[in-house]
């Protein structure tokens, strides 16, 4: 790894402010734990008001200076160079991401790192080709008027990130923010500071002006997260994380009436009709339940299966879960890594206990997993499947964010639509059926931001992405990101 961002002797993650790495003025640090070993492998500096003030001020100066002066062509060239440089340093990003998250190398190398680069490239391409609108307007004097729109950067954007796909979800916001001409202050999750820090080197290498991309480490309440979201110099806040945190951020954004884009939690359903291709439904549901150890906002935690195929589906999903190889990120053939932290391990295990108290039959799993050697203190749990829970149980209603799901039988289409919609959340759903009419009919009645038919997490970055109900505010992706990352001005010219 490169010692500019990770000082190998002391293993410290520094802030990246105004194009330079530096410690906290207070000297305060916090431990960073590798989830696969349960051991502290680094310390990150904890940002306070001083670091947040410095980062916001650097971002403002860049906006009013070198970055703001660039043409769209020059700016988007730089954004594309960021993508190219992430790809050039693919192995560094991969190593940083798998230590921080413990996720299998195969997953991070297929999803996290390539998407980290693609998020810059796609939004640069979008901005290069976007057009504005123009209207000819009749006026009483007959001379008329012309209206046309211009899109301007919103300003200094605070980017608050979670830990489950640290690089992917951070660049999903930094990519469009920079392509649109904004500057950013990123507050990575305290669990996963590595790749956001490393990205500072990339910015400097490709010549992004100082102050455009800033990183301040720390926690949320009473720390860098709260200081940043309540800072009056921030013009907009884009956040991915828990719904409860989203509520706190929305309140902070209310002061000064700053816009928010919120990508929040979910309690997503899969609906498997008896006419579905069961091989594909099983394969897709295995991924939607267990990928990234169930720590995917779009992941399935409720699986409704039409009664005639319920027993077969349950038996085959159990076989699949029991065949998963659990282990550390670089072990050969591993498909299930650890949970992110000891705290999250406790949370997931508390739901494993609760499921039994609520009357679940445990089809498989239900406990912690003790692995050997280096991973013996890692945060591993068994992939777990329940049946027999009611829709009103807490396990069927609350987001768990672990490698687990509850299976429930259903008898008809109307019933399953109502049950799938019977939730506070509205992020994603998957519907498995070979009946085309039914697929489209059901998809549009589900109260979600994203519905997959006979698939899951199949992404086209040009499409609208976000959640309905308590799963979010706004949509990002393709041109939809412009709604948040730019301010639209209409200019009216009287002829
Ligand atoms: P979290 O809400 O605990 O933390 C996210 C970030 O917010 C962290 O950086 C944290 O330090 C910061 N934060 C916490 N409190 C804050 C406050 N008061 N002010 C400012 N910042 C604050 O979420 P998490 O545990 O990191 O991530 C898991 C959650 O994220 C799950 O609920 C998951 O569904 C959700 N998620 C949603 C999406 C989506 O696209 N909808 C994607 C990924 C994860
Ligand atoms: O694919 C994406 O753009 C995206 N935001 C994925 C979110 C995954 C949640 O864990």
What does this structure look like?
- It is a single chain.
- The model has no long low-confidence stretch (mean pLDDT 96).
- By secondary structure, this protein is α/β, with parallel strands linked by helices.
- The termini are far apart.
- It has 2 domains: 6-264 and 471-494, Aldehyde Dehydrogenase, Chain A, domain 1, CATH 3.40.605.10; 268-460, Aldehyde Dehydrogenase, Chain A, domain 2.
- Helix 3 packs across helix 4 (105-129) and helix 4 (105-129) runs parallel beside helix 5.
- Helix 14 links the parallel strand 19 (428-432) and strand 20 (450-453).
- The chain has a 7-stranded mixed β-sheet with strand order 15-16-17-14-13-19-20, sandwiched between helices. A 6-stranded mixed β-sheet has the order 10-9-8-11-12-22, with helices on both faces. The protein has a 3-stranded mixed β-sheet with strand order 1-5-4, with helices on one face.
- The protein is globular, with a radius of gyration of 23 Å.
- 38% of the residues lie in helices and 22% in strands.
- Bound molecules: nicotinamide-adenine-dinucleotide and (2E,4E)-2-amino-6-oxohexa-2,4-dienoic acid (6OD).
- Nicotinamide-adenine-dinucleotide is lined by residues 160-164, 169, 187, 189-190, 219-221, 225-226, 229, 240-242, 245, 248-249, 263-266, 297, 399, 401, 427, 467, 471-472.
Summarize the SSE layout with pairings.
Layout lengths: L11 E2 L1 E3 L2 E3 L6 E6 L4 E7 L3 H16 L7 H17 L1 H12 L3 H25 L4 E4 L7 E9 L2 E5 L5 H14 L3 E5 L6 H13 L6 E3 L8 H6 L6 E5 L2 H12 L5 E4 L4 E5 L5 H13 L9 E7 H17 L18 H16 L3 E4 L19 E4 L6 H4 L6 E7 L2 H9 L3 E2 L1 E5 L3 H10 L4 E4 L14 E2 L2 E2 L6 H6 E9 L1
Helix pairs in contact: 2-4, 2-6, 3-4, 4-5, 9-10
Nicotinamide-adenine-dinucleotide binds next to helix 7 and helix 8.
């Amino acid at each position: 790894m490169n010692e500019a961002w990770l000082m190998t002797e002391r293993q410290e993650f520094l802030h990246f402010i105004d194009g330079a790495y530096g410690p906290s003025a207070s000297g305060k640090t916090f431990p960073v734990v590798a989830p696969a070993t349960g051991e502290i492998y680094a310390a990150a500096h904890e940002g306070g008001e001083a670091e947040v003030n410095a980062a916001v001020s650097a971002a403002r100066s860049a906006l009013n200076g070198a970055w703001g002066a660039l043409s769209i062509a020059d700016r988007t060239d730089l954004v594309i160079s960021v993508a190219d440089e992430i790809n050039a340093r693919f192995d560094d990003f991969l190593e940083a991401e798998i230590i921080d998250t413990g996720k299998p190398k195969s997953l991070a190398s297929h999803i996290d790192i390539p998407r980290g680069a693609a998020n810059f490239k796609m939004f640069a391409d979008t901005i290069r080709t976007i057009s504005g609108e123009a209207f000819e307007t009749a006026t009483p004097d007959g001379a008329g008027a012309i209206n046309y729109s211009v899109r301007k950067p919103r300003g200094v954007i605070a980017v608050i990130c979670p830990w489950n796909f640290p690089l992917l979800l951070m660049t999903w916001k930094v990519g469009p923010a920079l392509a649109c001409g904004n500057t950013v202050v990123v507050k990575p999750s305290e669990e996963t500071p590595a790749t956001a820090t490393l990205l500072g080197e990339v910015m400097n290498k490709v010549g992004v002006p100082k102050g455009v991309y800033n990183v301040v480490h720390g926690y949320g309440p009473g720390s860098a997260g709260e200081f940043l979201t309540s800072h009056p110099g921030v013009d907009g806040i884009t956040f991915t994380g828990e719904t409860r945190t989203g509520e706190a951020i929305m309140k902070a954004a209310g002061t000064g009436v700053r816009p928010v884009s919120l990508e929040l939690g979910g309690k997503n359903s899969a609906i498997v009709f008896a006419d579905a291709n069961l091989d594909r439904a099983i394969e897709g549901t295995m991924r939607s339940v267990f990928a990234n150890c169930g720590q995917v906002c779009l992941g399935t935690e409720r699986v409704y299966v039409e009664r005639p195929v319920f027993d077969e589906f349950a038996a085959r999903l159990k076989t699949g879960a029991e065949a998963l190889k659990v282990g550390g990120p670089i072990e050969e053939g591993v498909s299930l890594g650890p949970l992110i932290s000891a705290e999250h391990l406790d949370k997931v295990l508390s739901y494993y206990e609760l499921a039994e108290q609520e009357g679940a039959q445990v089809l498989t799993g239900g406990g912690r997993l003790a692995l050997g050697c280096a991973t013996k203190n890692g945060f591993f749990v068994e992939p777990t499947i329940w049946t027999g829970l009611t829709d009103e149980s807490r396990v069927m209603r609350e987001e768990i964010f672990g490698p687990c799901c509850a299976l429930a039988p259903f008898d008809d289409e109307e019933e399953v639509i109502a049950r799938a919609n019977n939730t506070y959340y509205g992020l994603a759903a998957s519907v498995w059926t070979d009946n085309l009419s039914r697929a489209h009919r059901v998809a549009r009645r589900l109260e979600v931001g994203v519905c997959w038919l006979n698939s899951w997490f199949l992404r086209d970055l040009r499409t609208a992405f976000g959640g309905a109900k308590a799963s979010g505010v706004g949509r990002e992706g393709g041109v939809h990101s412009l709604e948040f990352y730019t301010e639209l001005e209409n200019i009216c010219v009287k002829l």
